[in-house]
Amino acid sequence: MSSKGYSLMVDHEKKMKRKISNRESSRRSRMKRDQHMKDLSEKLYYFLKKRDEILPKMKGIAQVYAAMEMENMVLRSQKQELEKRLEYAKSVCGWCEGDGYGSMSLTGGFQEPWDQHQISNSISLMSSTGNFQF
């Protein structure tokens, strides 16, 4: 065989090896791509399933939050009303903490001005019956 014929044969062999190598590389790339698509599909399924589990929980939590927020608004309103009533009671009684308007109760504790009439009624009732128990 001439050197030219040998060279053609070597070139043809190289081309065939390169074709086989390219085909094998393409096959590996396709397999890799297919595996990647399969993995992505599994992840998509997993996250869709998780979403479907979480959404009802989120809706329930949102409802509880809304109810608690409403209850907090009611409680704040009641607190403000009670504070207003307390201020009014203080102004009517002329009482404020530490001003000396309160008196000591029979048990030795501080008696609020609005409760003093109960003590005086109790004392007059006990003195009329002669039944003093301390």
Describe the 3D structure.
By secondary structure, this protein is an all-alpha fold. 78% of the residues lie in helices and 3% in strands. It has 2 helices and 2 strands; from the N terminus they run αββα. The protein has a two-stranded antiparallel sheet. It starts with a helix and ends in a 5-residue tail after the last helix.
Secondary structure elements and their pairing?
Blueprint: H1 3-93, E1 103-104, E2 110-111, H2 116-129
Antiparallel strand pairs: 1-2
- What is the share of helical residues? over 70%
Radius of gyration: 46 Å
Strand order of the largest sheet: 1-2
The helix-strand sequence is: HEEH
DSSP strand count: 2
- Strand percentage: under 5%
What composes the largest sheet?
2 strands, antiparallel
Average per-residue pLDDT, rounded, comes to 81
Short synopsis of the structure:
78% of the residues lie in helices and 3% in strands.
Identify the notable features of this structure and list them briefly.
mainly alpha, 2 helices, rod-shaped, 3% strand, two-stranded antiparallel ribbon, 78% helix, 134 residues
